[in-house]
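Weekly structure sync, notes
Attendees: PL (lead), two postdocs, one rotation student
Agenda item 3: pending single-chain targets
PL asked that the sequence for the first pending target be pasted directly into the notes so everyone works from the same version. It is reproduced below exactly as submitted, 359 residues in total.
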Amino acid sequence: MQTDLIQEARRQTEICNACRYCEGYCSVFPSLHAERAFLDSDITQLANLCHNCRGCYYACQYTAPHEFDLNLPKALAEVRRDSWESFAWPQPLARRFHTLGAAIALALVIGFALLFWAIRAIGPSGSEGFYAVLSHNAMVAIFAPAFLLPLFSIAISLRRYWVKVDGKPIQMADVTAAFKRAGKMQDLAAGHGEGCNFEDEDRFSQVRRHIHQAIMYGFLLCVASTSVATIMHYGFGLYAPYGFWSLPKLFGISGGVLLTLGCGAMVYLKQKSDRDLGDPTAWGGDIGFILLLGFVGLSGLVLYTLSSTALMPALLAIHLGSVLTFFLLMPYTKMAHGFYRLAALVRDAQRKRDLLAVC
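Predicted structure, written out during the meeting:
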């Protein structure tokens, strides 16, 4: 990791630790104040705990033009992005995406869509629905490796992160506490529970929290749709296409709506926010990922709506191209952020457990 980013974040956290005025503004600050000195591992852990709510910045008396020039949200955002890039495997791909994210995602979606269209042009598969364009076996052969290999890559990067932050053997209580905290998006409500200042320095709001929840639960519903369809196909011999009131369709449509609306709202929110309180170098990657994820949801909804028209083969190629792009880029986009955040929450649960044992 870049030592200059670590050192600047350490300088700022030491000042914050001495002041402690912002302890009530952020749910992460108790973790910061639990330390007396900050190792590189501590800074990395705090950076991945931070949700960039920005309440500490707007409440701080030591921001510019004060000589301390504190901007802790930006300092931690830069360390956070650097940790994802440093622990990623293969590493160069992560650094490329964070600087050229939108262009890379767009090029891959177009390229894969053309590839699927070319496969379709070879000849029909003789099945029904979408499988008339691309057979079920062909989809499995393409998407199973495209899903499993990125998960393997993320597992390697998380292992590197866990070693870096001195993670201990994980207990079920640690995992339960982390999932509970993540499911509620508790830290996006900030320390006082009234929300964060991401959109407006003078107003606390829960909007960013609810948008994150829409994206997260929309994604999980889409995963549930695919998982249920797989069980129905292989476990019960119930093959697609499925009706509207089937679980795959209900999960998929509701998930697609939440993804589309959530990602659109997140792009709007980021446009309103102050870029200088985040990591400006990761702006392209952040926006590229959000647009890609939102397009996956939107293209799926459009495909379902027009599935009985002559546009279906072209729409299917575009949708599959966006899904394949999402899978392959998953370890190098902000999707990895979710895995790191969960790992940081597990590590913080261990810290709290150790503190209780001492008391």
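Discussion points:
- The mean pLDDT is 89.
- The CA atoms of residues 165 and 336 lie 17 Å apart.
Action: rotation student to compare against the earlier draft before next sync.
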